[in-house]
Design brief:
Layout: E1 23-28, H1 33-46, E2 73-79, H2 85-94, H3 102-105, H4 107-114, E3 117-119, H5 135-152, E4 157-162, H6 177-187, E5 192-194, H7 207-212, E6 216-219, H8 226-239, E7 243-253, H9 255-260, H10 264-282, E8 290-294, E9 301-311, E10 317-327, H11 328-348, E11 353-354, H12 373-387
Parallel strand pairs: 1-2, 1-4, 2-3, 4-5, 5-6, 6-11, 7-8
Antiparallel strand pairs: 7-9, 9-10
Helix pairs in contact: 1-2, 1-4, 1-11, 5-6, 8-10
Family: Belongs to the myo-inositol 1-phosphate synthase family.
GO molecular function: inositol-3-phosphate synthase activity
GO biological process, one term: phospholipid biosynthetic process
Length: about 400
C-alpha cells in the first residue's frame, strides 16, 4: 500500500533566481542636510514607516518602469566634514526637519551609509604637509573611492549625485571641486546628476569627457520651491496674454545653504537659474532680481517671497505676491531619490548623454526642452514610457 501523500517527504525548496541586484547612490556632500534626509527617508519609506510623499517615481505612471526599488539602494559618498550621519540626523530631527524618533528607527541604515563616506576635497595641502594635489590627482582619488564602493558592495551600478553647497563659478578656467567630482563619476563609469547650481559637467574642459563617456547625466540645480512656482506662474501670464512688468524676489534661509550663498559669487550662480526660467517662459526677462539673505536662526527652513507687477486689460496695473515657506532638504530629498532611480535605469537601458527629459526637476536643465512645468512633466512621462519593456512589467527590480 502506498504512503499517503501527506507522509511523503517534501523536497527542499530551491531557487534558480539570483539575488536581487543592488544599486549605489554616491553623494557629493554626503553628510549634508539633503543627503542625510534622503538616506533616512529612503530607509523609512522602504520599511513602510512613512509614505513616499513627494516622490514622483512612486506614482502610477512609473510603476512598470523597472526602476531600482528603494530597498535596493546602497548609499555612500564624499564629504569634507566629519559629523557622523546618525548625529547629523539627530540635529535635523531636533530642528523639525526629520520626524521625532526617525533617526533611532533608521540608525542601522544611517550608520551603514556613514561607513561608506570618504574624505572629500580638494584641500590646500595634503594632510601630511606635502604639496597640494593636482586636479588629476584628485580625480584619481575620487574615482578610486567610487570604484571601491561599487566593487566591495557588489553593486549592479551606481550614480553620483552632487548635493554639496553651492560654489562660485570659476573665473580662471580652473576645475572647481564640483567638476573634479563630475569627472571622477564618468571616469568610474557612473551616471552623474548635478542637483546644485555649481559648475559640474558644465565646465568646457569636461565636454569631451561627457561626450565620449557613453553615460547619461542630468542637472543642474534642483527646482524645489521658488523656481517651481515661477515655472508654473510664468506660463500662466503668457497664456493669458498678461504683460509682466517686473518680477522681484527675496529668499531668507539659514543652514549650510544660507552660509554658502552669503558669498555674492555663489548667490549669483544660484540666481542665474531662477532668472533663466522667467526669461524662457515669458519670452524675455522682466525687471527685478532675486535677493538671498542668510538668516542662521532659520536653520534648514526658508521663506521665499515673490512680487509680480503685471498689466491687465486697458492697462490696469495689478500685483501678485506669493510666499513659499518650507524645508529645503525635505523638498529636495524625494527629488534626489527620484533622479537617482531614473538615471540608474537610464544607464541600464543604454541611454547616454544629457537627459533633457528630466528637466522637470531642474532650474537649468541640460539639453533642449521646455521651461513650463506642465510641459516638462509631459516630457517626464514620455521618458517613463521609454524605460518600460515587457519584461519590466514583472517587477524584476521591485
Amino acid at each position: 500500500m502506498s504512503a499517503e501523500p501527506s507522509s511523503l517527504p517534501l523536497p527542499t525548496p530551491t531557487s534558480s533566481s539570483s539575488p536581487a541586484p543592488r544599486f549605489g547612490v554616491w553623494f557629493v556632500g554626503a553628510r549634508g542636510s539633503v543627503a542625510t534626509t534622503a538616506i533616512a527617508g529612503c530607509a523609512a519609506v522602504a520599511a513602510g514607516l512613512h509614505p513616499p510623499t513627494g516622490m514622483v517615481t512612486e506614482t502610477p505612471d512609473f510603476a512598470a518602469c523597472g526602476l531600482p526599488s528603494l530597498s535596493s539602494l546602497v548609499f555612500g559618498g564624499h564629504d569634507t566634514v566629519d559629523c557622523p550621519l546618525p548625529k547629523r540626523a539627530e540635529h535635523l530631527a531636533a530642528g523639525g526637519v526629520l520626524p521625532h524618533g526617525l533617526p533611532s528607527a533608521v540608525h542601522t541604515e544611517l550608520a551603514a551609509a556613514d561607513a561608506e563616506i570618504r574624505p572629500g576635497g580638494p584641500l590646500p595641502r595634503d594632510p601630511d604637509g606635502g604639496p597640494a594635489r593636482t586636479d588629476d590627482d584628485w580625480i584619481d582619488v575620487f574615482t578610486a573611492d567610487i570604484r571601491d564602493f561599487v566593487g566591495r558592495q557588489n553593486l549592479a551600478g551606481a550614480v553620483v549625485v552632487n548635493v554639496a553647497s553651492t560654489e562660485p563659478a570659476p573665473a580662471d578656467g580652473s576645475l572647481p571641486p564640483s567638476s573634479l567630482y563630475a569627472a571622477a563619476a564618468l571616469r568610474a563609469g557612473c551616471p552623474y546628476v548635478n542637483f546644485t547650481p555649481s559648475t559640474g559637467l558644465h565646465h568646457p574642459r569636461l565636454a569631451p569627457l561627457a561626450d565620449s563617456s557613453g553615460l547619461p547625466y542630468a542637472g543642474r540645480d534642483g527646482k524645489t520651491g521658488q523656481t517651481l512656482l515661477r515655472s508654473v506662474l510664468g506660463p500662466m501670464f503668457l497664456q493669458r496674454a498678461l504683460t509682466v512688468r517686473a518680477w522681484s524676489g527675496t529668499n531668507l534661509l539659514g543652514g549650510g545653504d544660507g552660509a554658502a550663498l552669503a558669498d555674492p559669487a555663489a548667490a549669483a550662480a544660484k540666481n542665474a537659474g531662477k532668472e533663466r526660467v522667467l526669461a524662457d517662459t515669458l519670452g524675455a526677462a522682466p525687471e527685478g532680481e532675486v535677493h538671498i539673505d542668510d538668516v542662521p536662526a532659520l536653520g534648514d527652513w526658508k521663506t521665499a517671497w515673490d512680487h509680480i507687477a503685471f498689466d491687465g486689460f486697458l492697462g490696469s496695473r495689478m500685483i501678485l505676491q506669493t510666499i513659499w515657506q518650507g524645508c529645503d532638504s525635505a523638498l529636495a530629498a524625494p527629488l534626489v531619490l527620484d533622479l537617482a532611480r531614473l538615471t540608474l535605469r537610464a544607464r541600464e537601458k543604454g541611454l547616454s548623454g544629457p537627459l533633457a527629459d528630466l528637466g522637470f526637476y531642474f532650474k537649468d536643465p541640460v539639453g533642449d526642452g521646455p521651461s513650463s512645468l506642465a510641459e516638462q512633466y509631459t516630457r517626464l512621462r514620455h521618458f517613463a514610457a521609454r524605460l518600460r519593456t515587457a519584461s519590466d512589467a514583472s517587477g524584476a527590480h521591485r
